[in-house]
Design a protein that fits this description.
single chain; 414 residues; alpha+beta; Dihydrolipoamide Transferase; 3 domains; six-stranded mixed β-sheet; four-stranded antiparallel β-sheet; globular
């Protein structure tokens, strides 16, 4: 019997997608729920599993095609059994079934590295959630392997690692310029995610009255608190105490004081939200995405840190879901991880506020009539001036500053 592989209903607001990569080829035996193909929407990467055991009989839709809901992708012969395998192959299958997360859930960047270095994923220790193999695991494994005496230079090895961080072949065509012809131009179609980012940024510029206000915050108290209690926090909660959880809680605390910053505009109405779903912008190989931490007013610091770590890894490994990035009432973006000292973040519609964090920079500050060197961070709040008055925006940012500079009061919720 022939089973048709079709694209299921796409999530709400998503009408089309691009077939990115076939992970199996005609003639391959596939198991039920094994990944067949990657589909890219304008929001996330979707993994389409096999609906049954059998032989992949025919690929109907080639890579690069635009597909919509219920599009026919391939056909599977579910009456065909697996091909005869040698004892070694059977052993490998058994090993694979013992570690299904590692064998089946490989992100595109991980598959690229495995292919580039001809590595067996089952031989590499996986540190990801539920045994998932991460790109960092492969790089660590490569660095730990003994090298022959005629090993490549460090410069060449570093170039290989940088190559692994570049976009995948399907995103940017391979191009090697000859010494005689180094002036060339490549035309590369935007991925759906990049095109959606461009659309939303343009929408924010055209449909909102964006204004940005700035302040600075002294990070010394948080640094001291993390140094004093960070080790015990890690032992008790199995997660590091980072800076972001303080800002998530400080923003939540300040949104409760200034609810208009947690509101949004819909037609001629203002929607006031009594929940606090904070988006955390994460940079990935495919562009910026914003996973959302729900109900931040009900979470403690450990829960916030755990969710941040989970979403960051899921986003970078391509395993983020649409539900994870949907909604959100306010966003925090951290340009400081890239070295930014000051920037003006752009709103994430339909939200009315976004807080930009920046690099911690030691500089002289006047404290009690004394000039002291302190770890300072610039803060930037961009807000929709159609809804939010400047006075509320400034006082909200001051509230965030005060909460960060007095973290014990923030933890005690006073």
């Amino acid at each position: 019997m022939t089973i048709e592989v079709k694209l299921a209903n796409l999530p709400e607001s998503v009408t089309e997608a691009t077939l990115l990569e076939w992970l199996k080829q005609p003639g391959d035996y596939v198991k039920r729920d094994e990944k067949l193909v990657d589909i890219e929407t304008d929001k996330v990467l979707l993994e389409i599993p096999s609906p049954a055991d059998g032989i992949l009989q025919e690929i109907i839709t080639p890579e690069g095609s635009v597909v919509s809901a219920h599009s026919l992708l391939a056909r599977i012969d579910d009456q065909a059994g697996p091909p005869l395998a040698s004892a070694a192959a059977e052993s490998l299958t058994t090993a694979s079934s013992a570690a299904p997360e590692t064998a089946l859930k490989l992100s595109p960047s991980v598959r690229q590295l495995l292919q580039q270095y001809q590595l067996d994923p089952l031989q590499i220790p996986a540190s990801g959630k539920k045994g998932q193999l991460l790109k960092s695991d492969i790089l660590k494994y490569i660095e730990s392997q003994p090298q022959p005496s005629e090993q490549r230079s460090e410069t060449t090895a570093q170039a290989d690692l940088e190559q692994a961080d570049r976009p995948l072949p399907q995103e940017i065509a391979e191009h090697t310029a000859s010494p005689e012809d180094t002036r060339q131009t490549r035309r590369v179609p935007m991925t759906r995610i990049r095109a959606k980012i461009a659309e939303r940024l343009l929408q924010a510029q055209q449909n909102t009255a964006m204004l940005t206000t700035f302040n600075e915050v002294n990070m010394s108290q948080i640094i001291k608190l993390r140094k004093t209690h960070g080790e015990r926090f890690l032992k008790q909660h199995q997660i590091k105490l980072g800076f972001m959880s303080f800002f998530v809680k400080a923003v939540t605390h300040s949104l409760q004081k200034f609810p208009v910053l947690n509101a949004s505009i819909e037609a001629n109405d203002i929607l006031y939200h009594n929940f606090y779903d904070i988006g955390i912008a994460v940079g990935t190989e495919r562009g910026l995405i914003v996973p959302v931490i729900r109900d931040c007013d009900r979470l403690n610091f450990a829960a916030v840190e755990t969710q941040i770590a989970h979403y960051a890894e899921a986003a970078r490994s391509g395993n983020i879901s649409l539900d994870d990035i949907s909604g959100g009432t306010f966003t925090i973006t951290n340009g400081g991880v890239y070295g930014s000292l000051m920037s003006t973040p752009i709103l994430n519609p339909p939200q009315s506020g976004i807080l930009g964090l920046h690099k911690i920079d030691k500089r002289p500050v006047a404290i009690d009539d004394q000039i002291l060197i302190q770890p300072m961070m610039n803060l930037a709040l961009t807000y929709d001036h159609r809804l939010i008055d400047g006075s509320d925006a400034v006082r909200f940012l001051v509230s965030v500053k005060e909460a960060i500079e007095d973290p014990l009061s923030l933890m005690l919720e006073i």
